[in-house]
């Protein structure tokens, strides 16, 4: 396929890779086919041991390589890619995604046309099932869980209408560079788990729009997540709440959390992960001394209240934790109760 000739001159791409050489090759090819010149590409090699840096030197002359010597998750690499760029926009990519040829052009045109849009998000589909959505229409549930209403639904059902969404995955995002820096970049303490939700939530807190375009697609090589992530998901979720939520929202969360947290702990214990829950809480305690600084950032950038950011909806629970029919039925009842509660507090306590 001949490269396109209309790649925006004010866009640079930053790919974060950790032992992703197999998937990095098609990711780079998709950028080249989109028309992105090598000089506008940065690959942040996060302590890879698979020959990533040598491959780039040999096969991709002109591509800038930033090598990190320690693997602290993707966030330090993302921040390095954003801050090293000099263009107005940064296309932030994971190394396991493939762009459709006009995705960047579509996102760029939408962001240039509307100054409120500081993040352009494609719809993410499965690489092996490109007619099936993996991520679209994202939002943040008020108990700080992901809402992904189009998960594993046909792409054709999503329709062509753009949407201002509440949260987006970092598979591929077109970012306004200065805005990303102003809101504090990615939290490098999170390692993985909630790090993308935290970043995009702060964008929304600051009053910016995240525009999802169905005409822009990326294909993601999805794979099951390991149980080792539980520690970070639990710890980071609590830190996310304490860092970003308004105090009155946190107070309103006490009744549902008195139900949600014991339920979560019981499920983890029954699945043999009880120790992880305790370790995650200990990890949270270690992060608390920096909480005043974290909340100062949230207060500085906040332009939108929690009541207008947080939603309710179907919770995403792994099949290995909630695969039985009885659990799924109970989950549906629980979700309806949470929805009723949030609608109540939004109309009363959080209404002023």
List keywords for this structure.
globular, about 350 residues, 12 strands, about 20% strand, single chain, alpha/beta
SSE topology sketch:
Elements: E1 11-17, H1 21-33, E2 41-46, H2 52-59, E3 64-68, H3 74-84, E4 89-94, E5 97-99, H4 103-113, E6 117-126, E7 129-135, E8 139-140, E9 146-147, H5 155-158, E10 163-165, E11 172-176, H6 177-182, H7 195-205, E12 209-220, H8 230-244, H9 247-270, H10 274-287, H11 291-301, H12 325-347
Parallel strand pairs: 1-2, 1-4, 2-3, 6-12
Antiparallel strand pairs: 4-11, 5-12, 6-7, 6-11, 8-9, 10-12
Question: What's the quick description here?
Answer:
By secondary structure, the protein is of the alpha/beta class.
Descriptive account of the structure:
With 352 residues, this protein is an alpha/beta fold. Helix content is 43%, strand content 19%. The protein starts with 10 loop residues before the first strand and ends in a 5-residue tail after the last helix. The mean pLDDT is 94. It has a domain at 227-347. It has helices at residues 21-33, 52-59, 74-84, 103-113, 155-158, 177-182, 195-205, 230-244, 247-270, 274-287, 291-301, 325-347, and strands at residues 11-17, 41-46, 64-68, 89-94, 97-99, 117-126, 129-135, 139-140, 146-147, 163-165, 172-176, 209-220. The protein is globular. Strands 1, 2, 3, 4, 5, 6, 7, 10, 11 and 12 form a ten-stranded mixed sheet that branches. It has a two-stranded antiparallel ribbon with strand order 8-9.
